[in-house]
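User: These chains co-purify. Model them together.
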Amino acid sequence: MNARAAIDLTAKVNTPENIQFEYRIAGPFRRAPAFMLDLVIRASSITAVFILLFCTGIIQVLALPFSVAVVALFISYFLLDWFYGLFFETYWNGKTPGKWLTKIQVISADGRPISAYQATIRNFLRSADLAPFLSLQFLDPTFAPMYIIPTGLVAFLCMAFTTRFQRLGDLAAGTMVIVDERSWVPPSVKLEDPRVEALATYIPANFRMSRTMGRAIALYVARRSRMAVGRRAELSAILAKPLMQQFGFREDTSTDLLLCALYYREFVLKEIVAPGEEGSRPPASRPASYGTPLRQEVTHAPPIVASIASPSPKGVSE
Amino acid sequence: MRVGDLLDRRRQGWQELDKLCERFASPAKRRNVTASEAARFAALYRAACTDLAMSEEFKLPPATVDYLHRLVGRAHSQLYRSGSFPVDRWWHYLMVIAPRAIFNDPCVKVAFIVFFGLFALSALMAWAEGTFPGFAESVMGKEQMETMEESFSKGLSGNFDHFIVASAGYIQHNTSIGLSCFALGPLLLPSLVTLAYNGIMLGASFGYMARPEVDAGDTFLEFVTAHGVFELTAIALSAAAGLRLGVGLWMTGDTNRLDSFLQSAKKALPIMMVAVVLFFLAALIEGFVSPSSLPYAIKAFIAIASASLLMFYFVILGYPSDSTSGTLEEQT
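Assistant: Joint model of the two components:
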């Protein structure tokens, strides 16, 4: 496990399709609520069985002996205690109801689905993970000295020392708990300002962006809609000012727009070409209505006024 | 083609895949999925995989790459779903592999010797009051002895409701002993201490109740006969499973700690499974038979039958043969 994966809380998985993708790992603070929910579900199921057996008069109606009801209650408790997690994780694709509600899922550490065998191990070892137990006297000195209050320290310590937040049962079964990705709309960046397209055409054609710069600009553009105008200017200036020098742009060009234009050029406009065919496309025609940011053409108006929406640049050859 | 156009074109496929994932995830909706949709799902998944693989080459925006990682992960966990429960293989595991693993495990021997040895010793000392005066009293405490005698002071016949409640309490008590022995197993010593402590306590109460001058003794022995074999064995077995985990964690041999622990967990699984089955059987007997006023012969027969069953399982099924090795994982 390399350091990066530990920091990013992701687990890389190689699929049979021979590609590599990442799962996000669920930490103790996602898993504890799932555990609590499962506990509540189990407790309320057993309470429901209890009420059904002893409070609805079903014993009298069916003329059952009292012991049958007690044993039925016991069997439900036993089954819920030992086979709840095993059953759901096997048949619900690694999710118990609590995990489903908190949107997490158990899978094998190698990315494959969890098998019944793994589900058995990790659920049978849960009691070891909940150790050490506190005595009931911890709550009230008059209670019987029964060591039944779980602390879960073993699980927490174990998660703290493993990179994939695995508890003892996870380690033994070779499983991990990941965030179950639900529908998630891809963040499509809307660059509605038509000046962006115009500005993009002024960026020198031979300008090549490094990967890290591309990432920084993409992050900025994805988040700029949530920033105040002043903040946009402040943040974008850090990256855009040196670039403006390099491109020979006027000092009063909007740095925010420049980053948007770079994004547009890099992630929307850019041709996908096989290596070796670069530069086969003629340069896009320049919508002229917004003026120019270049220093040599100072006579034109600066690119601030946006009155007419321009059509997107034509001249695309496929 | 431009990146933007590519994204627009692909986005439809991704969203279709996303919708299909949602349908596959829900058991109710999954039933209505047609064969052509399943095939479409596979095709879309492969396409998304390709897009993800090419995302570096195409220089897709980072947010889109993130999205693709999640989409592919989601589809992957639907395409390769968790399997079913292969009953026949588990049966083979439980009847062939598990008894052999248990028979060969030194941890089981240690746990049995500690538990039953101390149990027998303590029972003997508590019973022979003349030789060891005050042993039972000092182990159990006067108060607990009186409570216990009190609860067995009535005969079994006609007091079913009283004893069924007592049964529930004892089931809970003994199961929690077994569980805490297992749970403390990775720490080794606390598990052994718990096991020894409970062996001594149970032994002392058995020995004390077996004294001829204790009136409630006959009721007690009649009560514990039927389920005792299963329950005591289950306690010893669950401690053995815990010890097996602890041994793997601290005595690593030639492997690193994690691998050693994994191997020991695989060895502990059959022991724990059998312990759980025994706890369950013991509880059934304790719930139905023990508190009832059935003749003692029947209860004694159940005790003998269960002891023979255990002998058959551990010794005859468990006796090493040529093909002793093998885990469930290799089977499945």
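Chain A is about 50% helix and 10% strand.
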